[in-house]
């Protein structure tokens, strides 16, 4: 019986060995191989050859600037600039960026609105890292021009001129751009924009006759004769003879010499009219017995920041002799008639009500009051 059991065990063992030998990937076959090659060597080599990157791919992975060049050449400029930003030291590759800027400028006139917008974003990301880069600022200005945003372009060229005053050609470019924009605004009769932008540009180019002439013309178109005269008063005799200024001076003289009828409102036994002092509407009562114009305290507070203190003087009033502070404004305008600059006193005892229009304005005209029509008639002397 014992021998029978041993025989059965031996048979079971041999059967298991045989079945293991026949199984694919048998462990026994691996243990009994006579060569030294590990299993699946050929497969492993094939896998390696399939997954090993090419030399160019390895180079790209190591050098993101090379990948950025590839994207730029394909027209994906925003990805290119993002890769440049993420290089370890972006500004060390600024020469490559300048090459890109040159290439973009050369084809700027062939771009549509979306492409121009992408170029603008491209340039502005460069300016984040290098705010005063000449090439980037100039291309930014040119893109704004291509997008018909001329004021933005002029602003960029002004910035360039401040940063690089040694580049004299920038002054010529700026003068030309301003002249073009003024011409366009005049074509549109956009007088308010001419005044607003012109004053900014004039602060940068105070001797630019084209800007001065445009602002004067705009003020005349808007009947702002005081502002027009103040601007012309700052010019030299030679500048007043300039071909752009001479006809404007004649227009101003004609406007100030015409007969003017100013509507009046009754105030008891007196008449009140509307004047403009330092840009503010001020109600004044005609007083031919007053040598100077005087404002109430409330009226003065409307324009206190636009006038200059002169001095205090003792004057005779209805309440006797009193000390009155005097100020000077940029000018007074009644209708289209004006005088600049203009002095006035402040009646500190009078807080409300109209001020007084005195002879320091009226004496410059032949004047009369038409009581029937309630009008002040002003004629040039």
Key phrases:
6-stranded mixed β-sheet; Serine Threonine Protein Phosphatase 5, Tetratricopeptide repeat; alpha+beta; 13 strands; single chain; 2 domains; Cathepsin D, subunit A, domain 1; 4-stranded mixed β-sheet; 381 residues
Going by CATH, the architecture of the largest domain would be: Alpha Horseshoe
Structurally, the number of domains stands at: 2
**Helical residue percent band:** 40-55%
Going by helix content, strand content and strand pairing, the class is: alpha+beta
How much of the residues is beta strand, in percent? 15-25%
Distance between the termini: 156 Å
Point out poorly predicted stretches.
34-61
Largest sheet: 6 strands, mixed
Radius of gyration: 43 Å
CATH topology of the largest domain: Serine Threonine Protein Phosphatase 5, Tetratricopeptide repeat
Mean pLDDT: 84
How many E-type strands? Answer: 13
- Output the CATH class name of the largest domain: Mainly Alpha
Number of helices: 18
Shape: elongated
Question: Would you write up a description of this structure?
Answer:
This protein has 381 residues and is α+β, with helices and mostly antiparallel strands. It has 2 domains: 63-253, Serine Threonine Protein Phosphatase 5, Tetratricopeptide repeat (Alpha Horseshoe); 260-380, Cathepsin D, subunit A, domain 1, CATH 2.40.70.10. It has helices at 2-22, 27-31, 41-51, 55-62, 64-73, 77-85, 94-106, 113-129, 134-146, 150-163, 169-187, 191-204, 209-221, 225-233, 237-240, 246-257, 297-302, 359-362, and strands at residues 260-263, 265-267, 270-277, 280-286, 294-296, 308-317, 320-329, 332-334, 337-339, 342-347, 355-357, 365-370, 375-380. Strands 2, 3, 4, 8, 9 and 11 form a 6-stranded mixed sheet that branches. The model is unreliable at 34-61 (pLDDT under 50).
